[in-house]
Amino acid sequence: MDISNNKLAELLRQPEKIKKFSLLDWSVVIQQARASNLLYKLYCIFNQNDSLENIPLQARRHIEASRYTGENLYQSVFREVEYINAALQSIDLPVILLKGAAYVAKNVDAGNGRLFSDVDILVEKNFLPEAEKVFKQHGWFANDYDEYNDHYYRTWMHEIPALTHIKRDSVLDVHHAIVPPTSNIKLDTSKLLNCIEKVDGFANVFTLSSVDMVLHSAVHLFQDGELEHGFRDLVDLDSLMKEFSAQDPEFWMKLVSRAQELDLQRSIFYALRYTQRFLSTPIPQEGVQRTEIGQPVFPKLMDFLFERALMPAHSTCDDRFTAIARWVLYIRAHYLRMPLYLLIPHLIRKAYMKRVEKNKAVTTQ
Amino acid sequence: MNIGSIPQCDLLDTVRNEGIVFRIADFTIKLQSPFPEVAINIQKLYTDYPVVGPDSFVDFHMKVISPKGLRRWYHPQVEFYFDGFRPFKPLPQKQAYAMFEWSLNWCIANHMHSYFIVHAAVVEKDGKCIILPAPPGSGKSTLCASLVMSGWRLLSDELALIDSNAENVFPVPRPINLKNASIDIIRDRFPDSIFGPVIKDTAKGTVSHLKPPANSVRLASKPSRPVWIVFPEYQVGSDVVLMKKSKAQTFMGVAKNAFNYTVLRREGFNTLVRLIDSCDCYDFRYSKIDEALETFQLLLESK
User: Fold this and answer.
1) Domains in chain B, ordered, with CATH?
2) A181 is in which domain, residue-wise?
3) What ipTM did this prediction achieve?
């Protein structure tokens, strides 16, 4: 795979290239950034270092247009966190933010320009029934309830079906773990809960610790199989690791030993390998060596798959194996959480439901 | 080079394969489509638009293509892709050309937030322009078509692109989308009019696109100063009525018809305030085209 087609990655690695890009390069960058939901990230990066002016006007207006979506989101996310807080506080539970909302709340670089559509939170499994009840009382309901879907989530997933607020339409993803219960990774969620950190300015709002935040981002990207936003997630990882390692000289060591403790060596191996490969994340050689314990059995094959699947989901980044690579990794993600004798009926059912829905859509037109 | 000057077989070839890159006022579009009727009607209705080189910056990469699978033979369909994303459900293949037009509206209205964008027709004469905001079915396009076929300049039939200071409306003079009875009314009243395909049974009924006058296309990069905001309403058998509308009501009416008022928030509000402050505002009811044309001429001479 020729990763040099990824003009967006080139720009993120070397923002100073901004002056050297041709109009045609910009044409490609805008498309790739739009497909990976990173237009607003570009806006924030170049706005921060005062170089928006160096972008040709035709391209700049697309980047600047993303500002409105981004600013609207940031304004609403804190309000939304307060609503979640109001619900959980009534049963004395903390709000533990994950992913995008956590990056924004913790005010790290990864949150700067990060767009997301749902707020993800972590709730201790024992308290889940109570939390679900209180969310219902506060207006959050599972959208399009479907018995099979519900059963699937509750049996095989580390989250419950997404909840949508009946008035505000905002979406809440409630997790009780960061890996599926049946996964071959044995991760005790209480180990994460023991290390949560308070968010400044909020009474009852927390995020995972810096190291756990990176590990969660990695395990989500490399185990969950949702790779449409794979490149954006890789940009998150790059940004988190860059910032945390600059703040704490011990960061890499802590990251590797925590990965060992939580049984996440495989995910962290991939995270370091591909952030370095795509985004030239400055990772010390020693750190890379210490993660080699998590190397997969066929690293060349995994390179073949991930180098394709982690590109922006745009035709300028595809080769003839991209679609199959994403498909194989999607199947792999399911395989990692379900035994084969259940996986095959599940996938057939999903494919069938998709077909039925598609036909419904066509006939209702 | 203009689209009209490309030999038709070359144009068909380009649109089918690498795609044609052309400029519509402020926007550069790349269009790919295997359907000959899309290319043929682009040539018919976008004749005077310049083709630009393959090294240009492209705002919207548009694909109007056929869905994969067996539907290709059974009730064939057409779908629209924008940067690999499919914002709409497929339509019957006969609506391919209309799908291109509607998709381009969507592209502009959803991405060009450097403008305050109102769902409105905009026409100009003597350097003064009228914004005609209106929901579908109000007779906005019929009125707009009549005005531009009678010497007014077309800025747009669908999208009023207003700068943040509300000093200028920017043109995007594309074909006018006429529906149902309006198609024959305009065709009979203006024998010079050139139409694209008449497409039946769409979500909006029967539709056809009217080619914009060459002069409007020639002036496509020249913005105009907004002077009036007029809410048109076609009403069978009605006398022609032009009535002052309060600034407050006009504000609400324009906000309701704006595509990105809630996206632009404070900036959108400020733009709209400036726009309303600088314009005279009216409600307009009509049933006969000639009376409408006469009223607009009087309005123009009043200022």
Assistant:
1) 3-111 (no CATH), 116-301 (3.40.50)
2) 3-363
3) 0.91
